[in-house]
């Protein structure tokens, strides 16, 4: 465990030193500022309230969970695998007396923490913006619902990241992986539209599963099903990704 | 050791795959409340448009402003597919308590309209009978599948907000509600915007802070899967120009009853003031014209702008020499007045033979070669009400500006 912890700390430190982490922070802020500006424009232009302070964070979440958050997941996953092997720095990590499973898990752990941090940042700033600029309608139950929505959104994002990690271990070039990931993401979204009856089964469909957690009558059977589905995809992606990572020749 | 690791990996992968597969199977056999509701709607529409001989649909709505009824309406529509007739009675109550009733009866041969504001019954006879469908299944119409897909995509993970309660006798009750945090912001904004534009006039004009507070729905489906009632409520909040908050609610209730026990009775016109009108060709059907009536000369003026005025430079002449139900033959030519010959740069003269098409407005297409060798194609239509002929030429721009396609008959 101590070894894993050390590996994780190492991965997190590497990640935080990257410019990409800062790009993520700035992009998140930009989304919130832009969203708030649009709301203000709609409010003064059409007389619509747009959102109250209780809904603004959820509006932000609904926007980012299908756009920039998957993008962050892709960037970080690619950087952590393809990037390092391209720069030959992966060799350094792998020659340490740490098993490859631990390194692989530490990398996944770091990506998870990064996504959690991004969600946390978005949550804090959208709550602040919501309270500052929108009619004060935030109640405690609303607050807990919002926090819950952001928290549960971590799981589908991690599954998505695992899928991309699998891709990085299949294809060598980081740029190819990036475009493949975007293509696959769009393709899955389109498939979800065309075969709307089976859309729930696609790994991208659960990105906005936080909606389920907000329902008045708690749809626990659906939540359990979605959870198991994601878990299944996660295990498959993890195992396949790790297998390829383990086979990699330096 | 190596072998063990591989086995463990393979095992975990299989477990993951099995997990996905079983959940997927469970997911496919499980129908969300939303899907069940959709099925009930489709089934009801299909039964109404093809199986039930007759039934009664009752659709009513109430608009309230801060709890006070602003307007309400109730429409009872009796439909008889066997007798091919519908009778619709509407009652509208306005804010000041005023009541308006209206009645609309329709079958293939007749249409009767009457309202409480006018004692006259307006009767329209269709001779020959028009094509008339009591109720067509909206889910079978063109593009319905695409609309369904779009709706499904928008609904997305809100599908599970529809709760189903099944009773032992097989009937089902659907209910669902969305509050302001649950309604996706984009939908909230769009609905608010639409609602703002489409508000009933007697309502206070909301100017700011408009949003949808709540959407609720409830439906009863009997054990044969036919929806018997559907109630929808939408609550909107907003402020008027004085800053006063208004909660406006709209309740819509639809009921289906009297299946195979409804009688559509034609209004009794005995002793009533009646204004009759006969339509020889219903708009629903190809208008019947007698092309022979159009043999003769038709004209319109070539008008140009000269010295800041409109001036007649000549005439376009359409001479129809032969016309029957299949073909129309004739000649088109342009004649310029003396002194305007310089404008005749596009002077066209051609003989044509148009084939009348059995569908669409009465008329047909033709192609011809003009006197100076240009290929010309276009369409010719008869206007049955005004006795005019429309001659539309493809690429009319090349005919020079101001080509007029309407030709009036020349009476000698």
Structure description:
Chain A is mainly alpha-helical and 250 residues long. Chain A has one domain. Chain A has helices at residues 2-16, 19-46, 56-64, 68-86, 90-94, 100-133, 140-152, 154-170, 174-194, 210-214, 220-247. In chain A, helix 4 (68-86) runs parallel beside helix 8 (154-170), helix 6 crosses helix 8 (154-170) and helix 8 (154-170) packs parallel to helix 11 (220-247). Chain B folds into 2 domains: 33-257; 291-409. In chain B, strands 7-8-9-10-11-1-2-3-4-5-6-12 form a 12-stranded mixed sheet. Chain B has an 8-stranded antiparallel barrel with strand order 13-14-15-16-17-18-19-20. In chain B, a hairpin with a 4-residue loop joins strand 2 (68-80) and strand 3 (85-93). The longest helix of chain B has 28 residues, at 2-29. Residues 282-286 of chain B have low confidence and may be disordered.
Keywords:
heterodimer, A: 250 residues, mainly alpha, 11 helices, globular, B: 412 residues, alpha+beta, 2 domains, twelve-stranded mixed β-sheet, eight-stranded antiparallel barrel, 4 helices, 17% helix, extended
**Runs of chain B with pLDDT <50, length 5+?**
282-286
- Kindly state the percentage of residues in helix of chain B: 10-25%
Gyration radius of chain B, rounded: 32 Å
User: Quick one: how many beta strands of chain A?
Assistant: 0
SS content category of chain A: mainly alpha
Mean pLDDT of chain B: 84
Taken as a percent bin, the fraction of beta residues of chain B is over 45%
Strand content of chain A: under 5%
Q: Shape of chain A from CA axes?
A: globular
Structure annotation, total helices of chain B: 4
Which pair of chains has the greatest number of interface residues, and how are they split between the two chains?
Answer: A-B, 53 and 51 residues
> What is the H/E order of chain A?
HHHHHHHHHHH
Q: Please tell me how large the radius of gyration of chain A is.
A: 19 Å
């Amino acid at each position: 465990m101590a070894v894993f912890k050390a590996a994780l700390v190492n991965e997190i430190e590497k990640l935080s030193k990257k410019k990409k982490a800062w790009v993520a922070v700035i992009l998140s802020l930009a989304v919130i500022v832009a969203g708030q500006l649009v709301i203000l424009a709609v409010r003064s232009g059409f007389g619509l309230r747009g959102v109250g302070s209780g809904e603004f964070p959820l509006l932000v979440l609904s926007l980012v969970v299908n756009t920039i958050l998957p993008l962050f997941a892709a960037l970080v996953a690619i950087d952590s695998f393809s990037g390092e092997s391209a720069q030959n720095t992966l060799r350094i990590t792998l020659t340490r007396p740490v098993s490859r499973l631990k390194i692989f898990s530490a990398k996944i752990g770091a990506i998870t923490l990064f996504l959690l941090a991004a969600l946390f940042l978005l949550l804090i700033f959208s709550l602040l913006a919501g309270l500052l600029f929108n009619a004060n309608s935030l109640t405690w139950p609303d607050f807990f619902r919002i926090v819950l929505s952001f928290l549960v959104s971590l799981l589908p994002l991690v599954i998505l990241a695992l899928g991309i990690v699998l891709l990085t271990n299949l294809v060598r070039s980081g740029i190819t992986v990036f475009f493949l990931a975007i293509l696959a993401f769009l393709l899955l979204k389109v498939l979800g539209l065309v075969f709307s009856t089976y859309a729930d089964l696609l790994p991208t469909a659960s990105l906005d599963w936080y909606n389920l957690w907000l329902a008045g009558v708690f749809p626990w059977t659906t939540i359990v099903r979605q959870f198991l589905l994601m878990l299944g995809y996660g295990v498959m992606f993890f195992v396949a990704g790790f297998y390829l990572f383990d086979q990699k020749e330096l | 050791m190596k072998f063990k690791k591989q086995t463990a990996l393979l095992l975990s992968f299989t477990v993951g795959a099995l997990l996905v597969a079983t959940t997927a199977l469970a997911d496919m056999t499980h129908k969300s409340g939303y899907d069940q509701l959709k099925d009930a709607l489709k089934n009801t529409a299909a039964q109404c448009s093809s199986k039930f001989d007759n039934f009664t649909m009752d659709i009513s709505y109430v608009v309230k402003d801060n709890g006070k009824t602003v307007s309400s309406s109730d429409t009872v529509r009796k439909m008889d597919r066997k007798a091919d007739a519908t009778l619709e009675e509407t009652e509208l109550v306005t804010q000041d308590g005023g009541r308006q009733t209206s009645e609309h009866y329709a079958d293939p041969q007749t249409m009767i309209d009457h309202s409480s504001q006018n004692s006259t019954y307006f009767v329209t006879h269709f001779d020959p009978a028009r094509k008339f469908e009591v109720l067509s299944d909206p889910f079978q119409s063109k593009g319905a599948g695409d609309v369904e897909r779009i709706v499904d995509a928008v609904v997305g993970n809100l599908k599970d907000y529809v709760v189903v309660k099944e009773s032992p006798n097989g009937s089902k009750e659907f209910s669902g509600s969305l509050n302001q945090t649950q309604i996706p912001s984009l939908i909230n904004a769009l609905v608010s915007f639409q609602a703002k534009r489409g508000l009933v006039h007697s309502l206070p004009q909301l100017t700011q802070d408009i949003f949808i507070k709540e959407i609720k729905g409830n439906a009863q489906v009997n054990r044969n899967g036919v929806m018997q009632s559907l109630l929808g409520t939408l609550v909107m909040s907003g402020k008027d120009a004085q800053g006063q908050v208004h909660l406006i609610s709209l309740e819509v209730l639809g009921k289906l009853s009297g299946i195979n026990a409804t009688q559509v009775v034609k209004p009794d016109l005995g002793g009533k003031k009646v204004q009759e009108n006969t339509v020889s060709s219903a708009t629903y059907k190809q208008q019947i014209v007698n092309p022979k009536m159009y043999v003769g000369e038709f004209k319109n003026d070539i008008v140009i702008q000269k010295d800041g005025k409109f001036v007649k430079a000549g005439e376009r002449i359409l001479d129809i020499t032969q016309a029957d139900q299949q073909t129309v033959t004739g000649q088109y030519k342009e004649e310029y007045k003396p002194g305007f010959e310089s404008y005749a740069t596009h002077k066209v003269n051609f003989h044509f033979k148009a084939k009348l098409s059995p569908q669409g407005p009465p008329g047909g297409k033709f192609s011809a070669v003009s006197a100076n060798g240009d290929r010309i194609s276009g369409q010719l239509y008869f206007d049955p009400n005004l006795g005019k002929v429309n001659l539309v030429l493809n690429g009319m721009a090349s005919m020079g500006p101001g080509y007029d396609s309407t030709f009036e008959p020349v009476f000698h």
